[in-house]
Automatic annotation (TrEMBL):
It comes from Aspergillus lucknowensis. InterPro entries: NAD(P)-bd_dom_sf, Sc_DH/Rdtase_CS, SDR_fam. PANTHER family: BENZIL REDUCTASE, CHAIN DEHYDROGENASE, PUTATIVE (AFU_ORTHOLOGUE AFUA_4G08710)-RELATED. PROSITE patterns: ADH_SHORT. Belongs to the short-chain dehydrogenases/reductases (SDR) family. It comes from the Eukaryota. The lineage of its organism: Eukaryota, Fungi, Dikarya, Ascomycota, Pezizomycotina. Pfam families: adh_short_C2. Gene3D superfamilies: NAD(P)-binding Rossmann-like Domain (3.40.50.720). This is Uncharacterized protein.
Length: 273
């Protein structure tokens, strides 16, 4: 009796050579919402670790920080305008990247919005805006990336930006819709990883805690912030955006070739999201 087809295929398949070096050399990476903030920090980490090119897909204009990073890495950092809530603009942006750069190997689904207020005070429009960007936009971006990887025959990597708020609420700044949207992102990570493994596409997420950005400027200005840090424990400060980068670089790299369907929390202030 002949061996099962799967056994025969395994015998004839090319041997797997694990990548042990953590590098993004020769890779083209797209990051939504990378004109500033966490996304720009991820872009810097990718470029520092050898990425051939990084494209920011953002609805806003690139500012001074983006331009300064572009000067540090001439010919490697680009900005494309698109709206993640409109799937056709994301598809067009990815097509343009592949046309210009000759390929696409990783996509960081990072664009998001936050809004903190009591659940009883949220308006329908505020909730809709959060879900449109954080959930629908994330899904549209990931799906456009997967289709591009499959068309290219690339074993690509999708990395979502989730949040520690997807694990537990922050009683000082509650936001049920935001936390729910990011919990949805983590579930999406696991489900898409399961669906797309057959194409060699890996899907993971990173959950930042409190990060020093324009959206969190008010956190250390609270009069009892020092007391909060003593109460919550951990590293007594907010993270720099670049400190998140290592998690993303790992998940985008070939060193993570057997890593899929996981979330990496990056949360130095242990007891607070």
């Amino acid at each position: 009796m002949p061996p099962p087809a799967s056994t025969e295929h395994a015998k004839n398949a090319a041997p797997i050579v694990p990548q042990t070096e953590l590098t993004l050399a020769s890779k083209v990476v797209a990051i939504t919402g990378a004109n500033r903030g966490i996304g720009l920090g991820i872009a810097e980490s990718c470029l520092t670790n050898g990425a051939a090119a990084v494209y920011s897909i953002d609805i806003g204009e690139a500012g001074d920080d983006f331009n300064a990073l572009s000067k540090r890495f001439p010919g490697k950092l680009y900005a494309i305008t698109a709206n993640v809530t409109e799937e056709e603009t994301i598809i067009a942006a990815i097509d343009r990247i592949i046309s210009e750069a000759g390929g696409l190997h990783g996509v960081v689904v990072n664009a998001g919005r936050t809004h903190h207020k009591a659940a009883l005070d949220f308006t329908k429009d505020e909730i809709t805006t959060l879900f449109n960007v954080n959930l629908f936009g994330a899904f549209f971006t990931a799906r456009a990336a997967a289709k591009a990887f499959i068309k290219q025959g690339v074993k690509g990597s999708v990395v979502f930006t989730a949040s520690m708020a997807s694990y537990r609420p922050n009683k000082r700044v509650p936001s049920a819709p935001y936390g729910a949207s990011k919990a949805g992102v983590r579930n999406m990570t696991h489900t898409l990883a399961m669906e797309w493994a057959q194409y060699g596409i890996r899907v993971n997420s990173v959950s930042p805690g409190l990060v020093e950005t324009a959206m969190t400027y008010w956190v250390p200005q609270q009069p009892d912030w020092e007391q909060q840090l003593k109460y919550y424990g951990g590293i007594p400060r907010l993270a720099k955006v670049q400190e998140l980068g290592g998690a993303y670089v790992y998940l985008l790299s070939d060193a993570a070739s057997y890593t899929t369907s996981i979330d990496i929390p990056v949360n130095g202030v242990i007891g607070i999201c």
